[in-house]
Amino acid sequence: MKYKQSLCWFRRDLRLSDHVALSHAIRQSERVFLFFIFDTNILNKLKDKDDRRVSFIANCLRELEKSIKSKHSSLIIRYGDPVKEVFKIVKELKVNAVFINRDYEPSAKDRDDRVLKKMRSIGVDFNSYKDHVVFEHPEVLTQQGTSFRVFTPYKNAWLKELCEESYSDFSCKLDRLAPKEVCKKHLWDWSLEKIGFKQNFPNIQPGEKGARSRLNSFKRYIEEYDTNRDYPARVNGTSGLSIHLRFGTISVRALVRFAMKNNSKGYKTWLSELIWRDFYQTILDCFPHIVIGNFKPEYDGIQWEGKTKHFQLWKDGMTGYPLIDAAMRHFKKTGWMHNRLRMVVASFLTKDLLIDWRKGEAWFAQNLLDFDLAANNGGWQWASSTGCDAQPYFRIFNPIAQSKRFDPEGEFIKNEIPELSGFSKKYIHWPIMAKQTEQCKADCVLGKDYPFPIVDHAVQRRMALNMYKKAKIQSPA
Ligand SMILES: Cc1cc2nc3c(=O)[nH]c(=O)nc-3n(C[C@H](O)[C@H](O)[C@H](O)COP(=O)(O)OP(=O)(O)OC[C@H]3O[C@@H](n4cnc5c(N)ncnc54)[C@H](O)[C@@H]3O)c2cc1C
């Protein structure tokens, strides 16, 4: 056995099954301690002390603790700066190695570099593994040996590279976990309140159990995924697994194993979404400047002409565009938004309200339950045409046409904006077309019960085209 005692440090991989770092730790060590840190560098930046994500993590940890207890061991939890906390626990437990799964966010890479240096300085091994993605950089490259910037050729290369080994199961017998009697004196009676947060129950079953039951429900619907996935009102149209993938309560390999079971269109389209996830993780890993800047420098000179008050109305779901408002109100209430709606509201903010994508991205980052820097940044830069493989700047979603196409009966709108529920299918997407008598009949007078549109799409579209064109012409790139 290579190590007498090791530490497996959980971060965004809150599960026991199919966990690469854990399986390596078990294989190489006589005894493995399991460890998690509430990272104050992250928590201190959160404005809402009832942040739903922190509650979700806490609920996942409670479940993880239960599972670990059933294996006669314990999860050691600390609160603080990871560099200091890992150092302290390593000394306390006298471990010879730390095992982690790699994280590709620039701040996480920086944290891990600092921990690695600290461990080296005291002669402790720091072993990291690929787990969050199927392929990481530089496993999928262009023929020139560079990283891809466009999705379709990336996807083709990804599929070519894929073999059973790429998604094998790392679940193993957890027979070398440190006994609970040994862990006991290192435990801390933690609670959300003790770290300054409040429970805010997200209506989502946490942990591995939650992820498995979500996947099992989706199994019945995946055949229709390619036809249902764009309609926000269709229940189970998409998997709803993003939060579980975000916090690693299920492994991406488990999902690929499931997606590879069948060659039908639904399965294939869903696998494609998992490839998008890998793609954006790789883009973030290779081009970390995107965290604050445009992927495409030719748009660096855009003079965003939007108004601050419009940003607030967008956040509040008070733009007078029903599909946008329904999406934003649902988001505020639940912390979740359907992919089609994410694309439509992001396009509306940048190309109708002419507001910098970074503002929308930050609002999503603050509120999305499944917030993931790589996917969120990728989605925002795609919609605002500043990103890799983004849609061209002159392709601008018409929010009313999107509404008619993807919420044809206005079901989603009516659920989220009850004041519009009296309108028929004819007016629900654009109530301003309804005459005063129709409005009275619907019990919704515009300007009183629901706002007039804050901008004119046709006018704003022309302004957006000019704004982008000007930046491109003036760009030295
Ligand atoms: C502006 C914008 C912001 C976004 N922000 C995030 C974010 O912060 N976190 C996040 O996980 N996704 C984000 N997405 C991608 C996508 O909207 C969500 O992954 C999806 O809505 C999650 O629902 P689901 O789990 O039911 O997805 P499904 O349709 O069932 O897809 C399965 C999984 O594939 C992955 N996936 C799907 N679409 C994408 C995509 N376009 N890019 C990357 N991965 C994808 C997700 O992990 C998802 O759980 C964003 C998209 C846009 C346009």
Amount of beta strand: 5-15%
Helix content: 40-55%
What is the CATH domain class of the largest domain? Mainly Alpha
Number of strands: 5
The description of the largest β-sheet is: 5 strands, parallel
User: What structural category arises from helix and sheet content?
Assistant: alpha/beta
Oligomer: single chain
For CATH, the homologous superfamily of the largest domain is named as DNA Cyclobutane Dipyrimidine Photolyase, subunit A, domain 3
Distance between the termini: 55 Å
Question: Helix count?
Answer: 22
Hetero ligands: flavin-adenine dinucleotide
Explain what you see:
The protein has 477 residues and is of the alpha/beta class. The chain has 3 domains: 1-131, HUPs (Rossmann fold), CATH 3.40.50.620; 133-168 and 209-286, Serine Threonine Protein Phosphatase 5, Tetratricopeptide repeat, CATH 1.25.40; 297-472, Orthogonal Bundle (DNA Cyclobutane Dipyrimidine Photolyase, subunit A, domain 3), CATH 1.10.579. Helix content is 48%, strand content 7%. The protein is built from 22 helices and 5 strands. It has helices spanning 20-28, 40-43, 52-69, 82-93, 106-121, 151-161, 180-183, 207-219, 225-228, 242-247, 252-259, 265-286, 308-316, 322-334, 339-352, 357-367, 373-383, 399-406, 411-416, 425-428, 436-441, 457-474, and strands spanning 3-10, 29-39, 75-80, 97-101, 125-129. A 5-stranded parallel sheet has the order 3-2-1-4-5, sandwiched between helices. Helix 6 (151-161) packs across helix 12 (265-286). The longest helix has 22 residues, at 265-286. It is globular and about 80 Å long. The relative contact order is 0.10. The structure holds flavin-adenine dinucleotide. Flavin-adenine dinucleotide binds at residues 229, 238-242, 245-246, 273-274, 276-277, 280, 339, 342-343, 346, 364, 368, 370-372, 375-376, 378-380, 383.
